[in-house]
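Predict the 3D structure for this chain.
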Amino acid sequence: MGAGKRGVLTAAVTVVCAVTVLAVPGTAFAAPTPPPGPGTTASVTVVTSDVELEAVRKKLDKLYRAAAKATDEYNAAEEKARQQTAQVVRLAKKIVEGRERLADLKDRAGAAAAAQYRGGGLPPEARLVLSDDPQDFLDGAGRVRQEQHATKGLLGEMTRTQRDLEEYAEDAREQMRKLEAGRKVKAAAQKRVERQIEAAEKLEAELEQEEKERLARLERQAAARAQATWLSSGVLDDLTSKATAQGREAVAYATAQIGKPYQWGAEGPNTFDCSGLTSQAWLAAGKTIPRTSQMQWQHLKRVGVEDMRPGDLIIYWADASHVGMYVGDGVMVHAPRPGRTVTLAGAGSMPILGVVRPDPAAE
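Done. Predicted structure below.
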């Protein structure tokens, strides 16, 4: 890595760490309290060791990751519900139109039957045979054939319309069954999210303020170690790709949200979850992408970490439960977890599953 580029990356990491420090509410580092003098009987507070706090940090991380995974399931169910609801609406419209069409066809068929009744109830062929005028017979023969074709076509159209109506109704029933199943999936996912977040918040609430501050410091240190290890691997040595026009717009939108709170299931404009931020950023850039981090991983074009460019999405953890947007110089922007705000962080501060590109065709 060249000296100039290493300097840029070092500066970027320093900025990221500084931003992270500032982003943690209530973080302060008080001077250590001097020990009581000889003969004093001051009360002694048992302070949790850093080893114990590290175990708490890992447990919190596990709880919030479980909440993130359940949030993805909730968001996926919500997205499916939107699509299925739209499909039900389309089918309902087709059913209404089909019923109107069928009523019109029945009216026309009724008019034809009435005309035949007014003709004495005789079929057209019989009336022609009884005609005294040969020319009338010849002219009428053509009309008979036309009427026969029209009647046959009318009956055929009625049959097709009726069949279409039955298919639309069955499709609508199937979509409603899926909607109901989706509601159950969404409700179950919501309970899991709330249960995991409640457990994490309860765990944090049991800590003293000084312990919370040390826990925040341990979180920053863990992220900084992961980022330093990632950078030292040389993964960015040959990284030269520049953002596309759409990529710059997506980055501009995402970074403009810095400081806004995380809220699971949220897509803005005031709160976001991780994939809500990335999907809305690309929507602002004119590109619709899947709603959840797992669907983004499954459906968007994958590129090597060494080839990523600003605007690309970095998918984290083996279950693809978190996503951030690469902004350059080894830094990404993301909505971390409950209790945090949209912020910048080292792109390598969490285990990277891979990178996906929303605009692969753009140069």
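The CA atoms of residues 30 and 283 lie 45 Å apart.
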